[in-house]
Specification:
The complex is a heterodimer of chains A (101) and B (219). By secondary structure, chain A is α+β, with helices and mostly antiparallel strands. Helix content of chain A is 57%, strand content 14%. Chain A has a three-stranded antiparallel β-sheet with strand order 1-3-2. In chain A, helix 1 (2-8) packs antiparallel against helix 4 (38-50). In chain B, 73% of the residues lie in helices and 5% in strands. Chain B is built from six helices and two strands. Chain B has helices at 4-26, 50-71, 76-108, 117-138, 156-183, 187-218; strands spanning 33-37, 43-47. Chain B has a two-stranded antiparallel ribbon. In chain B, strand 1 and strand 2 (43-47) form a beta hairpin. In chain B, helix 5 (156-183) runs antiparallel to helix 6. The longest helix of chain B is centred in the middle third of the chain and has 33 residues, at 76-108. The chains are: A alpha+beta (101), B mainly alpha (219). Chains A and B meet through helix 5 of A and helix 4 and helix 5 of B.
């Protein structure tokens, strides 16, 4: 459970899970949605995979990521998103004022 | 989708339940009714049909899980995960059914009078609801199964959405049943609510499935 909490505590990883909620995506498609280096995204994906929140399936040269959330993990994700776990307080204040955190 | 161990254990439990029931009925002058002793040692006559409810429930759940294998396409990894899930579910369900059956039989023999039947009924309902919550919670983690009948299949993304939705509904239903079992003064008065909740889960899940398959067809 520690791994699940760790995985859900980061806003980027939660955004990855939200993107995968719509449909399975390749690593490239996921990278298009973030302005972070690919190795950083890979590390985030590895953390999610280690927590058993996503699964990766290799199809020839591409890797497709799928969501693998239980109902409880889904509820925890929604809670962490609502409360804003992992977002610095200054970021939350700015977000409340409508500025970019 | 159940393994050999689960089939053997559930069959053994079923045989035990039926044998004990047959033995109890054979001791009665009129086998159509059996006595149920109350804590004050007075007996109320009940229809023997109630002695068949727990075995029938076990046959229904076991049969549904076993026959489900015929409906799906061969996919060893997916079947293995679902078999493990179905087997644990069936074994725990069988044990709860057997406990319920042996409690009813013990009461008909005037035994276990110290145990309050209302509290025993509540405990059995809470256990069954916990089983629903735990099994449904894990469902979205299992691989998606494709039916042999292609017209029943959704694309992988919508299929996963449907499983997540149904699992959420089942977890909510399980929690509602726990609340009813604990807070309704007489568990028997909560039974219509439990049936209504189960019917609502089936109807809502069916409607969601219909909506998703319509979206899939329109694409």
């Amino acid at each position: 459970m520690d791994k699940v909490f760790k995985a859900l505590s980061d806003p980027t990883r939660r955004r990855v899970l939200e993107l995968l909620r719509k449909r399975p995506l390749t690593a490239g498609e996921l990278a298009e949605n973030f302005k972070i280096a690919k190795p950083t995204l890979s590390a985030h994906l590895a953390t999610l995979k280690e927590a058993d929140l996503i699964e990766a399936e290799r199809q020839s040269t591409i890797i497709i990521y799928r969501l693998k959330l239980s109902v409880l993990e889904d509820a925890l994700l929604a809670f962490a998103d609502t409360v804003g776990v992992g977002i610095p307080l200054t970021g939350l204040t700015k977000a409340a004022k409508g500025q970019k955190p | 989708m159940i393994d050999r161990k689960a089939s053997l254990i559930s069959c053994a439990l079923l045989v035990l339940m039926l044998a004990a029931t047959a033995w109890r009925l054979a001791l009665l002058p009129d086998w159509t009714h059996f006595p149920a002793f109350l804590p004050d040692k007075t007996a109320v006559m009940r229809s023997s049909f109630w002695l068949l409810v727990a075995p029938l429930c076990l046959v229904f759940v076991g049969g549904t899980l076993a026959l489900n294998k015929q409906r799906i396409k061969e996919s060893p990894d997916a079947i293995h995960s679902w078999t493990r899930w179905g087997s644990s579910l069936l074994i725990i369900y069988g044990v709860i059914c057997a406990a319920l059956q042996f409690f009813i039989l013990a009461r008909s023999l005037g035994l276990a009078l110290a145990i309050n039947p209302t509290n025993f009924g509540r405990a059995a309902l809470v256990l069954l609801a916990c089983l629903i919550v735990v099994s449904a919670n894990y469902m979205p983690k299992l691989p998606l199964l494709q039916s042999r009948f292609t017209m029943l299949n959704l694309d992988p993304a919508r299929g996963a959405q449907f499983v997540r939705f149904s699992a959420r509904m089942l977890v909510l239903a399980g929690i509602a049943i726990i609340v009813i079992a604990v807070f309704v003064p007489q568990p028997s008065k909560g039974v219509p609510w439990i049936f209504s909740i189960s019917a609502a889960v089936v109807v809502v899940s069916f409607l969601r499935r219909w909506q998703l398959s319509r979206e899939y067809r329109d694409e």
